[in-house]
Amino acid sequence: MKSIYLAGGCFWGVQAYFDLIEGIVNTRVGYCQGDIENPTYEQVCSGKTNHAEAILLEYDENQITLEKVLEKYFKIINPYSLNKQGNDIGTQYRVGIYWENKDDSLIIQEFLNEKQSKSDQKIVVENQQVRNFFDAEEYHQSYLEKNPLGYCHIDLSLAYQED
Question: So where's the catalytic machinery, residue-wise (predicted)?
């Protein structure tokens, strides 16, 4: 089992999307890259903690590669939008790929370089070692499963499209 952390705007939709993809074993929503321990949703939304809304994604590398996870991720984000995804605006909605394993950082950088080489716009997706990841409150976990009519800026049908 391997892990990667992805920030792509509101974490509800990112989690719901990846929960539909074969090879994804587990997801948890939370906050990472911030300056305080165990922040609340309200603290994160204040913009004063520097946390990003993110998901911890655990995947079976025998079923899906990190590169494939990143391709799926790029289907649902605007990689050129700084601190904004969909209708969500603020530093907590920035885009980022956060890793535990240094080898993953090289794969991620190659992937981002490849994407950047095909675009005139600057890609603003962070590529950093994960720090200060804390699970979000329980009511945020699998939010769209619990609240099917809840807000989501992501077209979940993209999970079923071939790359």
Answer: 10
Q: Is the dihedral of CA 129, 136, 82, 59 positive or negative?
A: positive
Joined together, the tokens standing for residue 108 give 């991620």
Token pair listed for 146? 């619990």
Q: Cα(91)–Cα(96) distance, rounded to whole angstroms? A: 11
Cα(85)–Cα(126) distance, rounded to whole angstroms? Answer: 14
Report pLDDT digits (tens) over 39-77: 999 999 999 999 999 999 999 999 999 999 999 999 999
Domain 2-160 part of CATH 3.30.1060.10: yes
Contact status, residue 127 vs residue 112, Cβ threshold 8 Å:
yes
The residues spanned by each domain of the chain are 2-160
Q: What share of the chain is helix, strand, coil (3-state, %, to 5)?
A: 35, 25, 40
45 is a catalytic site residue? no
Q: 10, 32, 45, 152: which is the annotated catalytic residue?
A: 10
What tokens were used for 27? 């997801």
Instruction: Report the C-alpha gap between 159 and 163 in whole angstroms.
Output: 10
